[in-house]
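stage 2 :: seqdesign
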């Protein structure tokens, strides 16, 4: 028979929950329907032991009403630690995206289009700078710069595609999808300040 394997994270709640602060325990109790039953029960026992609640009947009060998780296109991240991790992860993806204009700018300069290549290279370096700054610290200015850069980059690519007079649907579709993903990531960051 196959046995269910538990990751270290799934088993560690027995060690983690007793070390939670009172505020963290209250958050677990509010979201208890979304936790593993054993974890919710352990949080309940710990809250009873600390006197945060007097009995299980206290969970029916308004303060401990279980919050529903609702679908949202741009969900709010409550915990600062998680928000910072997600911000850094998205910013790292944006740093990787900066490689495209940097390399393309260098190639254009090498093929003789010096001014256009230098402009694309400068664009890529500015993109890299703004993305790297988002990894270190959150500032709306960098998000606005990257949003403007996304619009400018998409317009430039559309201009190049139209001027080549080869209208391939997948080329336009790919630009729209990539620009859309970048827009989504940036707006998500802006909404989760």
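stage 2 :: out
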């Amino acid at each position: 028979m196959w046995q269910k394997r538990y990751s270290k994270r799934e088993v560690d709640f027995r060690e983690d929950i007793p070390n939670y602060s009172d505020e963290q325990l209250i958050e677990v109790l509010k979201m208890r329907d979304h936790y593993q039953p054993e974890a919710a029960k352990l949080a309940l026992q710990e809250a009873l032991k600390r006197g945060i609640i007097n009995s299980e009947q206290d969970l029916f009060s308004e303060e401990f009403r279980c919050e529903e998780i609702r679908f949202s296109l741009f969900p709010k991240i409550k915990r600062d630690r998680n928000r910072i991790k997600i911000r850094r992860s998205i910013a790292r993806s944006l740093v990787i995206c900066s490689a495209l204009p940097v390399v393309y700018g260098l190639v254009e300069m090498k093929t003789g289009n010096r001014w256009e290549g230098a402009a694309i290279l400068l664009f890529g370096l500015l993109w890299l700078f703004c993305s790297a700054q988002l990894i270190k610290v959150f500032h709306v200015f960098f998000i606005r710069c990257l949003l403007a850069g996304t619009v400018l980059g998409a317009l430039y690519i559309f201009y190049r595609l139209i001027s080549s007079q080869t209208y391939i649907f997948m080329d336009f579709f790919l630009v729209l999808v990539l620009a859309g993903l970048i827009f989504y990531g940036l707006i998500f960051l802006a909404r989760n300040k």
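stage 3 :: structure notes
- Residues 80-191 form one domain.
- Confidence is low (pLDDT under 50) at residues 1-11.
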